[in-house]
Amino acid sequence: MGRRRGFSLYDIEQFLKEAGCERINEGAVVTLEKEMEDTVKELVEEAEIYANYAGRRKLIKRSDIELVKTRGSSRPH
Fold it and tell me: Tens digits of per-residue pLDDT, 43-53?
């Protein structure tokens, strides 16, 4: 059974077309999908740290995500 995708490959292809790409290789779409998943996962993990610090164990707020965006990730890449 294949891996469950976090983002639709069709939607990623449409996004790339809207961004100005006329032709898109399938490998590029799959690679971008993986990068997007990894980026979102990192963002959520960092936001969880701020939420936990604020005493919210199961609730991530917009402000937590904005803190990650403005302060940057503390994790090495």
Answer: 999 999 999 99
Q: Residue 30 in contact with residue 9, Cβ under 8 Å? A: yes
Q: Which long-range contacts (CB under 8 A, 24 or more apart) does 10-16 make?
A: 12/36
Q: For the whole model, what pTM was predicted?
A: 0.73
Give residue 33's domain range: 9-71
How much is the average pLDDT of 28-55?
93
User: Does residue 2 belong to any structural domain of this protein?
Assistant: no
pLDDT at 75 over 70: no
Residue 4 resides in a domain: no
CATH of the domain at 34: 1.10.20.10
Tokens for 70?
């403005």
